[in-house]
Structure formats: C-alpha cells, structure tokens
Design brief:
This is Stage 0 sporulation protein A homolog. With about 240 residues, the chain is α/β, with parallel strands linked by helices. The protein is built from seven helices and 15 strands. It starts with 7 loop residues before the first strand and ends with a helix.
Length: about 240
Amino acid sequence: MDQRSKLNIAVCDDDIFVTEQLSEWIKEYFVFNHLEEPNIYEFDNGEDLIKSEVKYDFVFLDIVIPGMNGINIGRRLLAQNEECLIYIITAYDSYLDAAMSLRVFRYISKPLDKSRIYRNIQDGLKIYTTSNTKILIETKNENIILRAPEIIYLEAQGHTLFVNTSEGKYISVRKMDYWEKTLDTRGFFRTHRSFIVNMEHVVRFDHSLVYLDTGVAAYLTKRNYQNFKHAFMMYLEGART
C-alpha cells in the first residue's frame, strides 16, 4: 500500500441495498472516529471492479454475483495488488473453505451487523497502518528506510546483527533488544536470542525450528514454543482470517 492520505475502498455486491448499507456504514465509521473519509467505489458485478484502474486498499466482496464469482475476483485483485485486504461477504457458509484458501482478510456472513463491520474496519486499519510504517535500519555506512513488512527476519551471529529484507541484507548497528522492542507489535516474534522472524513469512514450525518461505530455518527455544504458537495463531486470526 502506498502513502496516500485517503484509502480506496470498493464495495461489490449485486444487491443494491447491501452495497448502499455497507458504503453508509463505512463512511459513518470514519466520520465517528474523526478519520479522513475514504474514496468509496460501488460495483454490482466483478468485471467492472476488475477493469477499474484504481488501486484498492480494502474490498468488500460478495461471493455470489453475476458473472465471475467472488473467489475468482479476489484472486484477480490480489494478483494486481497483493496488499489489498479482501473482505468476503456472503450468506453461504459452504464457501468458507474456498475463501480461506484465498487467504482473505475477513469472512463476514450475512445478514450484516453494523458493529461487526466496524470491528473489521478497525482491524483492517491496524494492518494498513503497520504495512505503511517506516523502519530505519542504521548501518555503519548508511541509513536505510523500509516498510516493516519488507523485513523478513533478523539474525545475530556473534556481535553482528543481520537484518534480512526483501531489498537485501544489512548489518545493523542496533542490538537485538532494540529490534525486539521496535518490531514487537508489527507481526514479529523473537523465537530465540539470535532470531526475530516476520510471521507473514512463516510456513511451518516445530518444537525447535521456525521455517520461513525463504528457505531459512530460525531457532525456536523450547520455552518459547507455546508462546510462539499462541502468538502465531493470534496473528493468523487477526491478520488473515
């Protein structure tokens, strides 16, 4: 997600009442919380949503709509912008597994509940804020500024601390304790005195290792296993389900 003051939010449902109700609640949430109102775009079919050239931050998407179904629309949207948060809205629980396989941000059942919509907008804004937070990596020769999600893991080797990112590897002048405090609320976990991992990149773990999608295996201490398991489950529940 880029640095825009206004969010772009799409609402796509073939039921005009649902579309208008959702749009109204979204506006109300931002006004009530003294936040800048987002740009809201309404659609009654997936084809028009896909064809629009707007980069959406949040998309509220019905599964059963004319033409392309919501799951396929969601896949297309994520292919265009992997940081888009997809809210699947439907009255059919049978689509839950398909929605989960898409790794949507939230699955919201009909009939819609205003308080639940508010909670889910709030959760989405937390993810949006975290994704846009800038992190300063200080090295001996330069200062690098990245977004928190671009950090994959940190590893201490002796007195040297490596910050491994999607942009490359950097040697930080800061110590592990500093990074643990800095990244504490941003989806990171200190699995071992030598490792901090970004939970977005975790693919599996056992009682001694945490495996990342980069092929790296980070140490996991026995005393941290239950805490990490709990933190990871909470991360999945709060960030991707």
